[in-house]
């Protein structure tokens, strides 16, 4: 500021000189010097601002006496650190001890030597959101006892904006935010971090080097000092492989997440018996960080990871955009048997919940050779001039985190349109579309499937009664970020009529019921977010607010019946209260594998709703599970757990 004052004094004197000069030459000279000093003052002020900005190590803090961060802040100040434990007290004058919110911002300058992978740690009571460079990394905007969260990300050289938002509802109030650079990852083995909880929270109890991920602990502990149940592990390493498509395969009991090069390839953070998942992704030959996160809740425990390079198809003119891939699911059992397709992420959307009459049985039919006119855009809106136009023989792609056409089409934020004419005989046909992210299907100019939104791999179905002849098909697709996948197929279906009931009285069906208060019902997650009410079936239900994605500590419930091996129709009881989600996702584990059924709970009131008919094995592999992960806006709906029943067919 001393240099600023000197500049101001000099400018003042030059104005006085200018007023005192009579000759034109003298005035011009004074003006030239005056302009030069003005320029110097601007440079000095900007330099001072830049220096202050770069060296900013304090937090710009705003506090509100409400829980919504709205209106004028009651307190605006600089906080030296973000590490507070107010207990039942207040952060400052004018702020209540409960029901307040706060926001902190600061810049973090990373030098070339400091660039690398960082771990951000937040300990909080109650809610918190953490952004780094305007990307949301931690989102736990809920009432909770003191909890710990981590975000792992890469910080490049330069300045990074850190923003933290905080919510206090009632009781104790505290928040602490810190970060540290992660040590360089090993390249020939795995760094394993073992936690004595199932949520990877807090400080790892043990960190060790694991040569490979091929563990079958059974009912035992993974190592001395770690629980045999209720533990979690994060394995990390750097992996460099020749460029190509690779299939990554995991087998786990219970939950797993696999992240390759910052992309989540596999995410099944749920209680389950030994299950295998696989996904394909393209690696460009550079080193990538691979992380596998795992948790064990109870019972047997195992965790395995392998990968293999896919061989190039021997066809004479391979489609450069095609990256085949699938997710395979064996029936849940300790010894993985045959695999099943499609992926467990597939979700029926436009079709109704199946009923017992009539049963629609797909009849696979050979698809004639079709020429698709394909257009690709480097945006998500199908607008402007296409970046690529070509002909394709099918629409069946799983690009993972790759591009449909490297160096031409983006790996993220692109769109495509496929157009073709097909000819079908008269009959009933079912069209199946699998997509991640948005998709629309037009048949003869009429939109029959509309999934134009961001979502994980999801299956949509449409059934068409066709009189025979040609059909015009248009499939539109967009990819936002992370994994990319789209597939269109169709098959003839035939209706199988259910035999008419016998005139004699039908025998009373065998019904097995599991209510939410029975021993056959289990639940888990964050105990503080579970709610229960004396309404619903048998005057009791559990409910929670929804999650928009799989988060640490999400809530789940499982109904496990005692069945004899047979075919059963399954019904779920939807109560009239605390059931507002439009996307309750029920997983049915039966002898044929897993089936996902989505139910709009908001459309039912104290009703039994059929989830379909399945063959069950009569073992502990028979169950139905439901989590609070609905992919709707965070905490916008309620998910209810009540009764489930199986009626023997």
From TrEMBL:
Keyword Nucleotide-binding part of the UniProt annotation: no
Domain (PA14) ranges: 54-193, 185-321, 367-507
Region (Disordered): 307-361
Protein origin, superkingdom: Bacteria
Originating species: Caldilineaceae bacterium SB0661_bin_32
Name of the featured protein: PA14 domain-containing protein
InterPro entries: CBD-like_Golvesin-Xly, PA14/GLEYA, PA14_dom
TM region(s), chain numbering: 28-48
Keywords carried by this UniProt record: Membrane, Transmembrane, Transmembrane helix
UniProt key word Transmembrane helix: yes
Signal peptide start-end: none
Biased composition (Low complexity): 312-330, 340-361
Pfam families for the chain: Golvesin_C, PA14
Gene3D superfamilies hit by this protein: Toxin - Anthrax Protective Antigen,domain 1 (3.90.182.10)
């Amino acid at each position: 500021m001393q240099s600023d004052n000197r500049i101001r004094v000099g400018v003042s004197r030059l104005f006085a000189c200018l007023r005192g000069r009579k000759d034109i030459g003298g005035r011009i000279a004074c003006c030239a010097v005056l302009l030069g000093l003005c320029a110097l003052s601007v440079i000095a002020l900007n330099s001072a601002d830049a220096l202050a900005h770069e060296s900013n190590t304090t937090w710009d803090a705003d506090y509100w006496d409400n829980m919504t961060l709205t209106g004028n802040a009651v307190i605006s100040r600089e906080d030296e650190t973000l590490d507070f434990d107010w207990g039942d007290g207040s952060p400052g004058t004018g702020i209540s001890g409960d029901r307040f919110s706060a926001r902190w911002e600061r810049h973090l300058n990373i030098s070339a030597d400091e660039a690398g992978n960082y771990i951000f740690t937040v300990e909080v009571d109650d809610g918190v959101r953490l952004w780094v460079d305007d990307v949301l990394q931690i989102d736990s905007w809920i009432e909770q006892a003191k909890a710990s969260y981590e975000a792992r990300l890469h910080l490049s050289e330069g300045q990074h904006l850190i923003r933290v938002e905080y919510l206090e509802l009632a009781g104790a109030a505290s928040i602490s935010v810190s970060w540290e650079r992660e040590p360089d990852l090993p390249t020939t083995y795995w760094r394993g971090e073992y936690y004595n909880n199932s949520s990877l929270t807090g400080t790892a109890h043990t960190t060790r080097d694991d040569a490979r991920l091929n563990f079958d602990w059974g009912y035992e502990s993974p190592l001395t000092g770690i629980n045999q149940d209720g533990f979690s592990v994060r394995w990390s390493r750097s992996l460099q492989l020749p460029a190509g498509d690779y299939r990554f395969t995991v087998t786990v009991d219970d939950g797993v997440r696999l992240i390759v090069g910052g992309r989540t390839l596999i995410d099944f953070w749920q209680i389950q018996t030994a299950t295998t998942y696989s996904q394909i992704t393209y690696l460009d030959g550079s080193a990538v960080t691979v992380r596998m996160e795992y948790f064990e809740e109870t019972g047997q425990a195992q965790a395995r990871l392998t990968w293999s390079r896919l061989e190039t198809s021997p066809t004479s003119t391979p489609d450069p955009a095609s990256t085949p891939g699938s997710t395979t699911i064996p029936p849940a059992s300790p010894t993985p048997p045959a695999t099943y397709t499609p992926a467990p992420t597939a979700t029926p959307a436009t079709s109704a919940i199946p009923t017992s009459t009539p049963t629609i049985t797909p009849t696979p039919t050979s698809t004639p050779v079709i020429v698709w006119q394909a257009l690709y855009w480097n945006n998500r809106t199908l607008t402007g001039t296409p970046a690529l136009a070509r002909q394709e023989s099918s629409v069946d792609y799983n690009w993972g985190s790759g591009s449909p056409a490297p160096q031409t089409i983006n790996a993220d934020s692109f769109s495509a349109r496929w157009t073709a004419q097909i000819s079908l005989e008269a009959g009933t046909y079912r069209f199946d579309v699998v997509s991640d992210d948005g998709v629309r299907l037009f048949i003869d100019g009429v939109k029959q499937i509309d999934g134009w939104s961001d979502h994980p791999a999801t299956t949509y179905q449409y059934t068409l009664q066709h009189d025979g002849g040609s059909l015009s098909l248009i499939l539109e697709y967009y990819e936002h970020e992370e994994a990319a996948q789209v597939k269109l197929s169709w098959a003839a279906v035939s209706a199988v009529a259910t035999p008419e009931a016998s005139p004699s009285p039908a025998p009373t069906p065998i019904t097995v019921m599991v209510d939410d208060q029975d021993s056959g019902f289990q639940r888990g997650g964050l105990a503080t977010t579970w709610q229960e009410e004396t309404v619903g079936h048998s005057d009791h239900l559990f409910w929670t607010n929804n999650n928009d994605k799989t988060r640490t500590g999400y809530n789940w419930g499982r109904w496990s019946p005692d069945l004899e091996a047979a075919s059963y129709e399954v019904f779920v009881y939807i109560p009239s209260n605390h059931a507002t989600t439009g996307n309750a996702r029920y997983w049915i584990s039966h002898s044929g594998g897993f089936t996902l059924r989505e139910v709009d709970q908001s459309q039912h009131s104290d009703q039994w709703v059929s989830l379909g008919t399945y063959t069950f094995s009569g073992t502990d592999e028979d169950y139905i599970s439901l989590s609070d992960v609905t992919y709707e806006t965070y905490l916008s709906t309620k998910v209810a757990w009540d009764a489930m029943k199986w009626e023997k067919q």
